[in-house]
Amino acid sequence: MSDPAGQPPGLRPGAVTLAIDVGGTGLKASVLDGGGAMEHSRVRIDTPYPLPPDKMVTVLSDLVKPLGHFDRISVGFPGMVRDGRILSAPHFVSPDGPGGVPSDDLTKAWSRFDLQGALGATLDRPCKVANDADVQGAAVIRGEGLELVLTLGTGLGTALFNHGLLVPHLEFAHHPFRKDLSYNEVVGDAARKRSGHKKWQKRVLEAVDTLRALCFFDHCFLGGGNAARLEGDLPEDVTVVSNDAGILGGIKLWERTVSHPPA
């Protein structure tokens, strides 16, 4: 259905966006007005496990029922996403993830699952799905130089922007960091609980230093649920941002400047 000017509702100026932030610990959503402000307080539930993709679609559909009208959907997902399809879903398929469940059947079910198409069809609205750090980063970057966004949550999310343009996604989180362990294993939430806050914060700052040497970012933004736990002074080129950015960035998926090409 199009408006009188022939523009699809999902693309017209002032379109209302349902923004969903999928996390390993919680599933959150809100509705954003045409300017990107929340029209409703966000709704949230704990992420249920095990969570195959068909159940994900059902759970998200139920989650957003209280939020009312929307013209389009944006989803931030914690894994590798390409053209709305899930290439990796580490939180939902790994026995070492939050669910702690056997992974073979879930790995097969999630592999290249078209979450964008399935959720859009279920909710009968145009939908875009991208990596959650990419979405969060879109809400906080300044559009100046090379900007790195790190999300500290169940695992570590990463996104890079060059002069406001989203760089093709790289899963830094799964790259070896120290003592043959990945960034996820060293600075994720399980490591924080196991190692204690002081050691965890030291390792987060070590990770920032390592990534600074890797990509020479101009500025780094730290978001996600655990970013607020950081204490004391941070380097001048590092800023902590609100966890709400995971939702507020949803409107940016519909702008060419920070998005993959429109579906």
From TrEMBL:
InterPro entries: ATPase_NBD, ROK. SUPFAM superfamilies: Actin-like ATPase domain. Belongs to the ROK (NagC/XylR) family. This is ROK family protein. It comes from Acidiferrimicrobium australe.
